[in-house]
Design brief:
With 309 residues, the chain is α/β, with parallel strands linked by helices. 47% of the residues lie in helices and 12% in strands.
Length: 309
C-alpha cells in the first residue's frame, strides 16, 4: 500500500470509519536511521488508533524505529514480513525474511524497546517454503520472541517471477490455512488479510479469526469502510457528502502547507463507486486537481456535479 495509505488518505478514512485501526505505509527503517524522522512519522492526531509499519532486518535499527514510534505516540509498531517487492527484498526486508525466522525473532524482540504493542504482518508462505508446517513453526518462533498479534495475508509470495501486483492476485487465497492458525494458536490474535471485497466475506471471516485487514478495497470503494464498520460495531454511517465536507478544512490546511491537490483527492476517487455520476466525479477531481492553483473548490465543484445525478 505504498503511496496509498498516506496521512491524507488515513485522515479521510478516519472520518468514514472512526473505530477501525489505521496502518501507515511501510516505512523503511533505514530512512529513519539516516534521514529526517519527522518527514516519515508525522500524522494528524485524528488518525488514532494508528499503527506504524516498519520494514527492516537490523534489530538495532528496528529498536530505534520502535522508540521513535513511541515518541510519536503511535498505538502499535508493525513489522512487515510480507511485501514481495524485488526492491524491498534487495534491502533484506519484507517477505524474504520469512526465510530467516531466527533473525525475525531478534527483530521482534528489538521492537519491544519502544514499549508499545508489536505486531507482525506476514504471508502464509514464500517460494517453495509454503507448507503449513513451515508457517506454523514460523509463527511459533515469533510468538516465543514476544509477538502475540499476527496479520496474515492468505497468499504465498514469490520473490521472483511475479510483480508485486501479480503477487496480490496470482497466488491463490487460502483462508482455511489462516483459520487453522487460529485453531492451533488460540492464545494469539490472528488477523486475516487478502482479497476482502464484500461485506459477506468480511463478516464470514469473523467466525474464524480475530480481525480482518482491508487494503485495496478501502481505496477502490472507501465508503465500504463506513458501511462495514457499522455492520460490525453498530451505528449509522455518515453520508458521503457529510464526510467530504468534514474533509474540506483539512484539505485547506494542507494546501496552505504546499501539498498538491492531486495527493489530497486520491483517496476520494472511489467514494461514489456504484453510484450514478461516479465517472463524472472522478473526472472532475482528476482534471481539476491538475490545474495551477487548484484548491478545495475542486472538490466542492465535483460534489455539486455528482449530486445532480
Amino acid at each position: 500500500m505504498m503511496d496509498w495509505t498516506t496521512t491524507h488518505a488515513r485522515y479521510f478514512l478516519r472520518i468514514l470509519a472512526p473505530r477501525v485501526r489505521l496502518y501507515s505505509e511501510m516505512v523503511p527503517v533505514l530512512a529513519l536511521w539516516h534521514g529526517d524522522p519527522q518527514r516519515f512519522l508525522d500524522y494528524d492526531p485524528a488518525e488514532h488508533p494508528i499503527a506504524l509499519q516498519l520494514g527492516g532486518s537490523s534489530p538495532e535499527q528496528l529498536a530505534y524505529g520502535s522508540r521513535l514510534a513511541a515518541q510519536w505516540c503511535y498505538d502499535e509498531v508493525n513489522l512487515n514480513v510480507g511485501c514481495p517487492s524485488g526492491r524491498v527484498s534487495a534491502g533484506r526486508f519484507g517477505a524474504c525474511l520469512m526465510l530467516e525466522p531466527e533473525l525475525v525473532a531478534e527483530c521482534v524482540q528489538a521492537l519491544h524497546e519502544g514499549g508499545i504493542p508489536v505486531t507482525v504482518k506476514t504471508r502464509i508462505g514464500v517460494d517453495d517454503h509454503d507448507s503449513y508446517d513451515y508457517l506454523h513453526d514460523f509463527i511459533a518462533r515469533l510468538a516465543e520472541a514476544g509477538c502475540s498479534n499476527f496479520i496474515v495475508h492468505a497468499r504465498k509470495a514469490w520473490l521472483s517471477g511475479l510483480s508485486p501486483k501479480e503477487n496480490r492476485e496470482i497466488p491463490p487465497l487460502d483462508y482455511p490455512r489462516v483459520h487453522r492458525l487460529k485453531r492451533d494458536f488460540p492464545h494469539l490474535e490472528i488477523v486475516l488479510n487478502g482479497g476482502i471485497a464484500s461485506e459477506e466475506v468480511l463478516l464470514e471471516q469473523f467466525g474464524y479469526v480475530d480481525g480482518v485487514m482491508v487494503g485495496r478495497e478501502a481505496f477502490a470503494n472507501p465508503y465500504s469502510m463506513a458501511l462495514w464498520e457499522c455492520s460490525i460495531m453498530g451505528g449509522e454511517p455518515p453520508a458521503r457528502r457529510e464526510a467530504v465536507e468534514q474533509y474540506l478544512p483539512y484539505v485547506e490546511r494542507q494546501r496552505q502547507l504546499g501539498v498538491p491537490m492531486s495527493q489530497l483527492v486520491k483517496v476520494l476517487m472511489g467514494l461514489y463507486r456504484g453510484c450514478k455520476g461516479a465517472r463524472l466525479w472522478r473526472r472532475h477531481l482528476t482534471e481539476g486537481s491538475q490545474q495551477p492553483g487548484a484548491g478545495p473548490e475542486v472538490i466542492t465543484q465535483a460534489l455539486r456535479q455528482v449530486e445532480k445525478h
